[in-house]
Specification:
30% of the residues lie in helices and 23% in strands. By secondary structure, the protein is α+β, with helices and mostly antiparallel strands. The protein has one domain (2-153): endopeptidase fold (from Nostoc punctiforme) (Alpha-Beta Complex), CATH 3.90.1720. A hairpin with a 4-residue loop joins strand 3 (50-55) and strand 4 (60-65).
Length: 154
């Protein structure tokens, strides 16, 4: 199992929304010096060559075949209960994208398990899978960049 992070820099397919997400989920220092473009705008869990996440383009949680387009960075995940993660993620397929929840980056919105944004559902899945160090991470205030940095620390 691995987590895929969608790159903005050097990505001819990165949209204005991708750049906006990268900007708002980066640090102030990264924003000021332009390094926010080196960050990530989206993340997915890769299980058995399938991508699972919540995407605004797909209007919510979905599963599709993984094709490596070279626009992703990966972090391999070990020491988790992959069966529990799969069970949780498959039970969430079809749930809506959490457009209001994504404001949790900036506000105090309440977490909801009826709707998800990408890093929120992945953090929750990793918590369910027993990745203990993530147990303290708040899924609702996560971002692809925060998740990437947290996983690199493990």
């Amino acid at each position: 199992m691995k987590i895929a992070f969608y790159k903005v820099k050097g990505n001819d397919k990165a949209t204005f929304l991708d750049k906006l997400i990268a900007f708002f989920t980066s640090t102030w220092k990264e924003r000021l010096n332009g390094d926010f473009l080196k960050s990530y705008s989206h993340c997915e869990i890769i299980l058995d060559n399938l991508m699972i996440s919540s995407s605004p383009r797909d209007k919510g949680v979905r599963i599709k075949e993984f094709k490596d387009t070279g626009r992703w960075d990966f972090i391999e995940i070990n020491n988790t209960n992959e069966a529990k993660i799969k069970e949780f993620l498959y039970s969430q397929i079809g749930k809506k994208y959490d457009f209001l929840g994504i404001l949790g980056f900036f506000t105090f919105t309440k977490d909801s398990e009826d709707k998800w944004f990408c890093s929120e559902i992945i953090v929750r899945a990793l918590q369910i899978g027993g990745l203990v160090k993530l147990g303290e991470m708040n899924a609702g205030s996560s971002s692809p960049n925060r998740l990437y940095k947290k996983l690199k620390e493990l």
